[in-house]
UniProtKB/TrEMBL annotation:
GO terms for molecular function: ATP binding; ligase activity. Keywords: Ligase, Tricarboxylic acid cycle. Pfam families: ATP-grasp_5 (PF13549), CoA_binding_2 (PF13380), Succ_CoA_lig (PF13607). InterPro entries: ATP_grasp_subdomain_1, CoA-bd, NAD(P)-bd_dom_sf, Succ_CoA_lig_flav_dom, Succinyl-CoA_synth-like. GO terms for biological process: tricarboxylic acid cycle. It comes from Prosthecodimorpha staleyi. Residues 24-114 form the CoA-binding domain. This is Acetate--CoA ligase family protein.
Amino acid sequence: MHDFPLDVAGARMRPTLRRNFRRLLAPQRMAFIGGTQVERTLTTLRDRQFAGEVHVVHPKRTEIAGYRCVPRIADIPNPPDAVFLAVNADATIRALDELRRIDAGGVVCYASGFAEIGEAGAERNRAFIQASGDMAVVGPNCYGLVNYVNHGSIWPSPFPVLETGRGAAVISQSGNVTGHIVSNGRSVPYSYLISAGNQAVLGFEDYIDGLVDDPNVTCLGLFMEGIRDIPAFARACLLARSKAIPVIVCRSGRSDLGAAMAASHTSSLAGRNDFYEALFARLGVIETDTVPQFLEMMKIASLSAPLGGTRLTVSSSSGGDNGLAADYCSFAGLHLPPPTEAEVAAIEPLLPEFGHVSNPFDFTAGNWGNEKLLTPMLTTLLSGDVDAGMLVVDYAPAGSPYRSSPAHEAMDRALAAAGKATGKPVYHASVNTGGITPEASQRMIAQGIVPLQGLHDAAQVIARWAAHGERMRRDAAEGAAALDRLVPHAVPALTGAPRTVNEADSKRRLAAHGLPVPDGRVLSRAELAELPEEAVAAPMALKALHDDLPHKTEAGGVALNLRGRAEILAAADRMSDSVARHAPAIRLERFLLEPMQAPPLAELIVGVKRDPLFGMVLVIGAGGILVELIKDAVPLLLPVGREDVEKALRGLKCFPLLDGFRGRPAADLTAVVDAVMAIAAYAGANLDSLVELDVNPLMVGPSGAVAVDALIVEVPRPD
């Protein structure tokens, strides 16, 4: 744990809200208000043997599920720490107001009919927030929470019993998906599972902030449809990162249809996949693609020691299994180094004559279950230059008389012994999802082995766990200041109509922040006619200049490779006529004259877009005519560092053009990064007015980069 003194001012929960959140998760007194859902929840609570006080409120019934009822909230004898409120939407607001007045701690609100139904529920949602005060309110439109630490659960259906209360804390915007997650058969250890619903009061940022200091929490798993406050979410994730608590995400709404479903479900702003991915990469959030992968990722983060790298040794008794392992590990970015000569010499005498020592290693069917020989073989392989070991063996399905066998147990003992002897993490992966029985999983966990279901997902989560370990080592070296810089800019809402800034003024502004631009001049038609011939002998570019003409090419407002005054004047006259036909309201009075630039190695587009959720987004991509053709672009959230820009450039499909493609000279990458940073600097200095800007193309050559076109769109600052 690094526990840097991260600057999270404005991101931490208010002290009273924090206290009430802790009361919600460690209740001594609980209250239940409502009917049918309350009865189901109380039945579950009794089964889990909650040790504290339980009070039930119902105006007409004298008992529910064996618990005595009182008719009113005011009749609850002591302030409850945790409340389940399962009444209709309007009654929920009235009850929240009463609960706040008696100093209740936290409330789980089951009712729907708030922000998820749009404007019709917006006023009700505002009243809900006001009535909540500083209570830790979960929901509305949520299913409840499962508490494996204190057993003060609020969950209307049965859920599995776990032997330990230490593990992943899950916050999910879907109650049904929370149910799937808690009821899985993958042996994921949990501490808490919270169905967050609409997040009217507590958002992801609050849950993260409230859970990172809990010693029972190994990692944070977020099933999300959207994020309500990106800067606050970022600060919370970076707080978790500073404490080496992994944040793991599974997100719905990645397709257009999924985004629409998410918006109608919990009023989330979903979609924008590339922006979400940029945010998660920036924060070190571990993103998963499926719910099974999400579960496996939480498992490995809860049970595995950090990995020192991506080098893995894989063993099985099957050439086919090893072939799949080699493929999936390679696809995931893991490395399988070949055994050394010394390792081969130590293992070969233990194999049949046809055996071969490699990585992946086929220990042959003849050694199936041979603990005496497998232990030294696996220990030798794991003692080498690798970071972890994986055994690939499946179990028979549930109901089969061969679900477990002495041979399976012997192979796991050999793997566990190798892990203990070398001090390195070890994993048992099945090829099939569900290829390890729950009983076998628990036995492995007790021995220090992490069971992983499905070979493809096993490779993916091991690779992402290794990347997390590398990130933690880098954070330890760089310190908290490096994390502070990762919080995206918060941008104010803009008022007023956007306006475009002509190319000359756009370039002038960007040049003031360090962006190289051509040596151009703004001239009238009369001034063009007075140009000395020798001043325009070299090839020149002439462009129409007007604030209301952002797209000059479509209007015939660009002429290239002009030589001499006569060609320039003729082009200016054609331009004036063409612009007049294209936009009769524009009177063209000025032109931008610039020297033509040498043919570049590549053309890039660098832009900044203002997003109401993500703030300022810098986009770097292939420019010129390739913009729409190959759609090769990488988004970065501002502020941004030089290393992020260089990594984005190297990730472009067109990067080989900058890197000496087919014997051509390489670009001056430092100059390209300088140019992009200048654009980012301008955006950072104009958060209160900039709507968007585009530099297209940024021409990149062996000795530098130059912006040959630029456009700024802004809202004027008030005087």
